[in-house]
Amino acid sequence: MLIRVLTYNIHKAIGGVDRRYRLGRVAEVIGHYDPHIALLQEVDEGVPRSRGDAQFELLSRELGYAHGAYQKNVRLRRGAYGNAVLSRLPLEHAEDFDLTVRPKKRRRAQIVRLALSDAGHRRTLVVANLHLGLAGFERRIQLRRLLHDSPLSRVRRDTPCLVGGDFNDVWASIGARIMRPAGFESATGLVRTFPARAPLRPLDHVYFRGPCSADHAYAGRIALAREASDHLPLVAELRIDLE
Fold first, then answer.
1. 71 exposed, middle or buried (CB, 10 Å; 0-12, 13-18, 19+)?
2. What is the number of other CB atoms lying within 10 angstroms of the CB of residue 195?
3. Is the pLDDT of residue 120 over 80?
4. What is the pLDDT of residue 201?
5. Each residue's pLDDT tens digit, 136-182
6. What are phi and psi of 239, to 5 degrees?
7. Does residue 4 contact residue 36 with C-beta atoms inside 8 Å?
8. In which element (H, E) is residue 121 found?
9. pLDDT value of position 121
10. Phi and psi (nearest 5°) for 60?
């Protein structure tokens, strides 16, 4: 079964160049790539800078995603922002896992279980959506905590599993140092996604483990994607073995 996964730091739908709030641009970019699963970071809810919009709900409705989950990470004086999963695959379970490294900003991962079915075959897909910290030591602690202490650590090796999001991986070192020793391979390589206008850094990634393989990956480079956020969306197509 071929599925398309998109990970996208939407930057609260504030353009990376013009600094204008335009949620419609983000919706159009996601809709253009039409992923089965969208992993979003920096999603606002009830914040004045984004007109008090509940962005997760608006994007779900606009794009026709019947399944999903929202996670408030950082609470502001008015409103909050965090991570969101939009899915065309049935969502069986969603939970949050704390990745905060004090005294740094609060960070959490979303861990969801999705139902795959094709030609009479069924399988569970486990997906983690995250936005790691800015400091190198912080990112290492967060990933090790996710891989060894979270519900992800109890997922069987024969269950397909994806970890995606904004890794803030400035030096592109996380894959070799942490993910591969834990059995994960990169589905996206070193595709540059930041800054959107002229990408220099591969901050965003999708890793996989289990009975699946990477088919293709690319950064979304339509003109609107260069304006909608300070990150480009990263798209990965993977084949999941259901037998």
1. buried
2. 17
3. no
4. 96
5. 999 999 999 999 999 999 999 999 999 999 999 998 899 889 999 99
6. -105, 125
7. yes
8. strand 121-131
9. 81
10. -60, -45
What would the two tokens of residue 54 be? 């509940």
- Of 150, 149, 140, 62, give the one whose Cα is nearest residue 104: 140
User: Where do we find the tokens 């994607």?
Assistant: 225
Tell the residue number behind the tokens 């950082």, with chain if given.
74
Cα gap 225→222, rounded to integer Å: 5
Query: What is the number of other CB atoms lying within 10 angstroms of the CB of residue 59?
Result: 24
Q: What DSSP element (H or E) covers 163?
A: strand 161-166
Kind of pairing, strands 185-186 and 37-45? unpaired
What is the tens place of the pLDDT at every residue in 30-73?
999 999 999 999 999 999 999 999 999 999 999 999 999 999 99
Question: What helix, strand, coil percent values describe the chain, rounded to 5?
Answer: 25, 40, 35
Which tokens hold the place of 84? Answer: 């969101």
Task: For residue range 80-103, list pLDDT tens digits in order.
Answer: 999 999 999 999 999 999 999 999
Helices (H), the chain: 23-33, 55-63, 136-149, 174, 225-228
CA gap 65, 63 in Å, rounded: 6
Query: In the sheet where 212-219 sits, what is the strand order?
Result: 67-75, 80-87, 37-45, 2-9, 234-240, 212-219
